[in-house]
TrEMBL record:
It comes from Streptomyces harbinensis. GO terms for molecular function: 3-phosphoshikimate 1-carboxyvinyltransferase activity. The keyword Nucleotide-binding does not apply. The keyword Nucleotide-binding does not apply. Keywords: Amino-acid biosynthesis, Aromatic amino acid biosynthesis, Cytoplasm, Transferase. One of its GO terms (cellular component) is cytoplasm. It is an enzyme of class 2 (transferase). This is 3-phosphoshikimate 1-carboxyvinyltransferase.
Length: 448
């Protein structure tokens, strides 16, 4: 073993000495868990969230809802130990809805889902709800939610920043109705307004006015989960106008919902099979899903892998070759760091397009990926809306992560093939994938 002289927050990324062969159970979806929490909090009766993701982003959402008076009871069930529970392992959260209470304070961390999904819900409380978070949260776009809430009748005090920190002065109810939003900076503006809309007096009609709309699958996820909770939703896919979503006012049902594995967080493990010419199975991969990570089946197949989805889950088998790719990732932007890592190890050039909005994610992901891969000897250039990646032989070094979980997992992927690579602050993976280092070492040890 190499003797790394490391500071505490430099993680020696393990090198893969052979083809990876493993089954990896990945934790639940962040996007599903945080939507489920909002919808359950607004429901007319209690509900269950089974196998929720328990990570920084989802615990921040749960804590925020608790401070707004929503009951969230956590239980660990071995199987059907919880009355009414379907057979299943792991943790369950019982959500006891309540009219949101104020005053309250909310720490959003750097969670886009918390900073965007909660202000509309807070507008239903009677009194001030103060929102603040990590320094980076002050830089992330929120204007779409703030302006729309004002247009729908809410009082929001942001001292002219158009961003955090801010206070929503709830009046106990919100008129709702039609509103225009430019969601080109984040699809979460649209999702945020739709999720709480069944509880607005007139529901909502959201019209996106911007030139581009990123992460459309995440808006479909919002619509799908609203409908499953009993909401009446018109969307472009259901024959409605393009770029317009309507949610009717009405009661939401308390559901019993099992959270799917986070397919975007399955990415580094699938990438490991691809780049080592091995085979990785992710159990419980859904046959039908709105998660954008499902696109990995197609993307990693185009990059040289072979994907089989069956009752065992999704199995990706690498061919020993890693092919470059020219692709628009606008729908699936959160997959970009992991794809960039694989692309840097490929045998031909890649062009990743349609992801200009990543400059305002957890960090400026386009700048960070360019800087960090190039520091290892890579040849990455930023384009107006993405990255051009020319594979080069890479050498070891420190891969900085800028408090970005997906930079950290991208560094781990590179480290499988690049000797002496150290990932700075691997703990930042806890934003959405707790225990990542343990899962990674478990995969390399072939544990299933
Ligand atoms: O609604 C969601 O759960 C998400 C939407 C996307 O945000 P953007 O549209 O801001 O990219 C995605 O990148 C993020 O990880 C999760
Ligand atoms: C962009 C992401 O997160 P957030 O929900 O904070 O926007 C992400 O997880 O890649």
């Amino acid at each position: 073993m190499t003797d790394h002289s490391l500071t505490a927050d430099h993680w020696p990324a393990p090198l893969a000495s052979e083809a990876v062969e493993a089954t990896v159970t990945v934790p639940g979806s962040k996007s599903v868990t945080n939507r489920a929490l909002i919808l359950a909090a607004l429901a007319a009766d209690p509900g269950w969230i089974r196998r929720p993701l328990r990570s920084r982003d989802t615990l921040l959402m749960a804590e925020a809802l608790r401070s707004l008076g929503i009951g969230i009871e956590e239980t660990v069930s071995s199987s059907s130990a919880v009355a009414g529970a379907p057979e299943g392992r792991g943790e369950s959260w019982r959500i006891i809805p309540a009219t949101p209470q104020a005053p309250a304070t909310v720490d959003v961390g750097n969670a886009g889902t918390v900073m965007r999904f909660l202000p509309p819900l807070a507008a239903l409380a009677e009194g001030p709800v103060r929102f603040d978070g990590d320094p980076r949260s002050h830089e992330r776009p929120l204007h779409g939610v703030i302006d729309a809430l004002r247009a729908l009748g809410a009082r929001v005090d942001d001292e002219g920043r158009g961003a955090l920190p801010l206070t929503v002065h709830g009046a106990g109810s919100l008129d709702g109705g039609p509103v225009e939003v430019d969601a080109s900076a984040s699809s979460q503006f649209v999702s945020a307004l739709l999720l709480s809309a069944p509880r607005f007096n007139q529901g909502v009609e959201v019209r996106h006015t911007g030139a581009v709309l990123p992460s459309l699958p995440h808006i479909r996820m919002t619509v799908d989960m609203l409908r499953r909770a009993g909401a009446q939703v018109d969307s472009p896919e259901s024959g409605g106008e393009p770029n317009v979503w309507r949610v009717a006012p009405g009661a939401l049902l308390g559901r019993d919902l099992v959270v799917e594995p986070d397919l975007s967080n399955a990415q580094p493990f699938l990438a490991a099979a691809l780049i080592t010419g091995g085979s990785v199975t992710i159990p419980d991969w859904p046959f039908h899903t709105t998660q954008p990570g499902d696109a990995l089946r197609e993307i990693f197949s185009a990059m040289g892998g072979d994907c089989v989805l069956d009752d065992r889950g999704l199995t990706l088998t690498g061919s020993g070759r890693i092919l470059g790719i020219d692709i628009d990732l606008g729908d699936v932007g959160e997959l970009t760091p992991g794809i960039a890592a694989v692309a840097a190890l490929a045998e031909s050039e890649s062009v990743l397009r349609g992801v200009a909005h990543l400059r305002l994610h957890e960090t400026d992901r386009l700048a960070a990926l360019t800087r960090e891969i190039n520091a290892l000897g890579g040849d990455v250039t930023e384009t107006a809306d993405g990255l051009r990646i020319r594979p080069r032989p890479l050498h070891g070094g420190v891969f900085h992560t800028y408090d970005d979980h997906r930079l950290a997992t991208a560094g781990a992927v590179l480290g499988l093939a690049v000797k002496d690579l150290e990932v700075e602050n691997i703990a930042t993976t806890g934003k959405t994938i707790p225990d990542f280092p343990e899962l990674w070492h478990g995969m390399l040890a072939g544990r299933g």
